[in-house]
Amino acid sequence: MQIKELKNYFFSILEGIYEPAELDSIFYILTSYLYGLKRIDVSLQPEFEISLHEMERWNSILIDLKNEKPIQYITGEAWFYGLRLEVNQATLIPRPETEELVEWIIESQTRNIESQMCTILDVGTGSGCIPISLKANLPKAKVYAVDVSDLALATARKNAIENHVVVDFLQADILDVGILEYFKDSFMADTLFDVIVSNPPYVRHLEKVEIKKNVLDYEPHLALFVEDNDALLFYRVIAKLALQLLKPGGCLFFEINQYLGPETIALLRNLGFHTIELRKDFAGNDRMIRCSIQ
Ligand code: GLN
Q: Sorting pLDDT into bands at 50, 70 and 90, what band is 116?
């Protein structure tokens, strides 16, 4: 089959499930991933031949797409802050709003040489998108990252190597009572941080009705969901830890649940944080917070 026919076939199978513009972009992600052919290359070579054997591959991809498996889990890759990252079902697919959080941190740490030589800790790192993009843009920084999932950490380690950056990873359950001692004993012996950042699980079960099938059926629930009656659990635990682990004047950055901006601010204020700043994401939702300790 020629690639122009394949495109028609692809659209005929999937229309109704995806918007045409989305289908278009998924199709070209696949031609680029499979054959290195970008949109323009496909237009220039409409007769590019897809073998019968390759059609089997396309058919299996079509089944996945019909079941709304995210394209990033089909190709095993996602782009974040200009970097290619491996993703799989142990890691969330990095989101554009998290890029905005990273942008904020980079912006706040590039003011002078001293702030560039900062130490950073990312809690709940997943694919490693936050620490890897930070280290790539703040090469003088010393960057640490933890996650509870061994599988996610293996992916994050690989992503750091493939992007030629050094990040210190540690497996840790942030909810463990002995976590502070564990941090101090294991890899952070004398380290206090200038920046602690986290995009922890924050979606309440009651919000599941709003979550699309591609997220709900495929992305790791461990990284997404919290109990309705204790939605800020991770924020409380991480902020308390930050009180012990941040240098004086250090900053804590969070990605937050858009519906819980005021509650998250109140929690941080009650714990003694100051200069609490809330920012919206590109979609206009309350999405990230920066705060400091004395
Ligand atoms: N922003 C993600 C979503 O909407 C959630 C990320 C998280 O829970 N930390 O699916």
A: confident
- Give 45 Cα–ligand 1 centroid separation in angstroms: 39
The pLDDT of residue 188 is above 80: no
Q: How far is the CA of 201 from the centre of ligand 1 (A)?
A: 7
Q: What is the DSSP letter of 69?
A: -
Tally of residues, the chain: 294
DSSP letters along 105-116, please?
Answer: HHHHH-SSHHHH
What pLDDT shows up at residue 154? 98
Residue 166 tokens read as: 């050094």
Atom of ligand 1 nearest to the CA of 95: 1
Pocket test for ligand 1, best of 203, 235, 253, 258 (most atoms within 8 A of CB): 203
Question: Residue 294: what pLDDT?
Answer: 82
* CATH 3.40.50.150 holds for 89-292: yes
pLDDT at 273: 97
| Domains in the chain: boundaries | 3-67, 89-292
For residue 219, the ligand 1 atom closest to its alpha carbon is 10
Please state, in angstroms and as integers, the Cα–Cα distance from residue 226 to each residue in 166, 179, 205, 233, following that order. 31, 20, 7, 8
pLDDT category of residue 149 using cuts at 50, 70 and 90: very high
> Can you tell me the distance from the alpha carbon of 30 to that of 18, in angstroms, rounded to the nearest whole number?
15
Interacting residues of 225 by C-beta distance below 8 A, sequence separation 6+: 201, 203, 204, 205, 208
Least confident of 93-102, 174-183, 216-225: 174-183
Task: Output the ligand 1 site: residues, CB below 6 A.
Answer: 95, 199-203, 215, 224
Ligand 1 atom with the smallest distance to the CA of 203 is 8
| Distance of CA 199 from the midpoint of ligand 1 (Å) | 8
Q: What is the pLDDT of residue 246?
A: 94
